[in-house]
Amino acid sequence: MKFQRESKIENKVPTSSMADIAFLLLIFFMTTTIFKMEDGLQITLPRAETASKQEREKIIRVWIDPVGHISIQDKLIELQSIKDVMIATMQDNPALIVAFNADHRTPNGVISDVMDQLKEANAVRVSFTADKQKAGEV
After folding, report:
1. What number of other Cβ atoms are within 10 A of residue 99's Cβ?
2. Does domain 56-128 have CATH number 3.30.420.270?
3. CA-CA distance, 79 to 7, in Å (whole number)?
4. Whole-angstrom Cα distance, residue 55 to residue 78?
5. 47, 54, 79, 103: which has the fewest C-beta neighbours closer than 10 Å?
6. Mind listing the pLDDT tens digit for each residue in 17-42?
């Protein structure tokens, strides 16, 4: 008696464990890859050991509120006239220090525009002030 062999060969690739293999490869590469953070420039910033108080005559105060109103020495001033006011003030005392006070909610564009006006007036001695108690408040 002759037995006939019935062998059926399937042409399918088993894909049931493909997702498992891909996931394991992903975990392997994630755990073995080393990410090097960019170090940047190595600099040492100066620390303020002591602050020296300046005489009131050497300081001109510029205030900017959250809305964008600008005040120089307690007088409201338009943005376009800052340069003229600063040039006139700097002629009397060229060693003036500009104490720049801006609210933390003030738009950066307004601060940048005021700084540009100060630069055009050659008022380059600028001091940015901050209140330590209010520094973290939002």
Report:
1. 16
2. yes
3. 91
4. 27
5. 47
6. 888 889 999 999 988 888 776 554 45
